[in-house]
Design a protein that fits this description.
alpha+beta; 3 domains; elongated; Outer membrane lipoprotein wza fold like; 372 residues
């Protein structure tokens, strides 16, 4: 039996041809996309979607309204010394302070002689007007002041990698993400290691902290009951195949491009690499991939697709693609071996297999000559 018929050529991964042929199978477990400048630009625009698109950028004007659980005080003055709320002093000083009271679950507060007054869903000015109207037939020119002393309903929760987790009360002017993070004492670690997660209702979005700092579009207005979590999330990517080093590397850049990622491992190995076979492995949402492959199907329960992006560096324009293709956290970059490298491997393997036989025959000849 010949050496070539029983020898398997060792390899660090699939060849470019094997990946391309696998994508053509009916039951293929991945989608292969050749990256052109257009594809790279579309992927970049998808990743750059600001929070203002996800949540809207409008200011929450209703944060000044009173809510269930808020604590309010009511002060009432009259123009007469002998009025319902006078204390027998001069008209300028006559009045009464209603003790602090929480807004009940039914949204009401109690004011003497005015009865129960709806407070929830109204501004202090609206509650003031209602009380004055209710007292107009009993008090002498009543003047009312309603003040929220504990704003428990218009709050956001800030937690995670901040100096002081807790609930932050919102003011009527509206507060942005950076405002409430600062109110919680700011982040406890470097910005490049953090992600900011915002949960509003049933929707959750996450962005790098660095992007929140550098892009004003991301610093959106928060809304009551938002949950803001700072997550320590070092970003990394992995490189395998025909590069100068195979490694898993963390990166601090707010955005890392493929040319920068390859430079971190010394670039492609000139003796082994197939310049047409630069592959990036990633999972993507189905709706994103259908822009490039309309027949793509979901491959996981969360509606994502296994995707392999291919960059051809034999094409001179491929280096422009490297500069615009963004590397995501968790990406795997694989460089396939060239055909010549596989031939060299095979030749080396044959040499190591045949050499002991040749050397053994030479030793036997030498022994025979000595015996004669």
């Amino acid at each position: 039996m010949s050496a070539s018929s029983c020898t398997v050529i060792p390899s660090s991964g699939p060849s470019a041809g094997e990946i391309q042929n696998g994508a053509k199978k009916v039951d293929t477990p991945y989608v292969l996309i050749n990256v052109t400048q257009t594809v790279a630009d579309l992927l970049s625009s998808t990743q750059d979607k600001p929070l203002s698109v996800a949540f809207g950028s409008a200011r929450k004007t209703s944060s000044s309204t009173i809510g269930v659980g808020d604590t309010v005080t009511v002060s009432i003055w009259e123009a007469s010394e002998n009025g319902l709320f006078s204390a027998g002093t001069s008209a300028r000083q006559s009045g009464a302070q209603i003790p602090e009271q929480p807004v009940a679950e039914n949204g009401m507060i109690v004011v003497p002689y005015a009865g129960t007054v709806r407070a929830a869903g109204r501004t202090p000015q609206e509650v003031k007007a209602q009380i004055e109207k209710s007292l107009s037939g009993m008090a002498v020119e009543p003047q009312v002041l309603v003040n929220v002393v504990k704003n428990n309903s218009n709050t956001v929760t800030v937690t995670g990698e901040v100096a002081g987790s807790g609930r932050i009360s919102l003011n009527g002017a509206g507060q942005r993400l950076m405002d409430v993070i600062a109110s919680a004492g700011g982040p406890r670690t470097e910005a490049h290691q953090l992600a900011v997660q915002i949960t509003r209702g049933m929707r959750t979005e996450t962005i790098p902290m660095e992007k929140l700092i550098s892009d004003p579009r991301e610093n959106i207005y928060v809304q009551p009951n938002d949950v803001i979590t700072l997550i320590r999330q070092p970003r990394s990517f992995t490189v395998f195949g025909a590069t100068m080093a195979n490694a898993s590397l963390q990166f601090d850049e707010s955005q890392l491009y493929l040319n920068q990622a390859l430079a971190k491992v010394g670039g492609l190995n000139d003796d082994r690499a197939n310049a047409k076979g630069v592959f990036i492995y990633r999972r993507e949402p189905l709706q994103e991939i259908r822009r490039f492959v309309p027949t793509a199907r979901a491959m996981h329960a969360d509606g994502t697709v296994n995707v392999i992006y291919q960059v051809d560096l034999k094409d001179p324009s491929g280096f422009f693609v490297l500069k615009s293709f963004k590397v995501n956290n968790g990406d795997l970059v694989y460089i396939a071996n060239s055909s010549l490298a596989e031939i060299r491997k095979f030749s080396t393997l044959i040499s190591t297999t045949v050499s002991p036989v040749v050397q053994g025959a030479s030793v036997a000849d030498n022994l025979n000559s000595l015996s004669n």
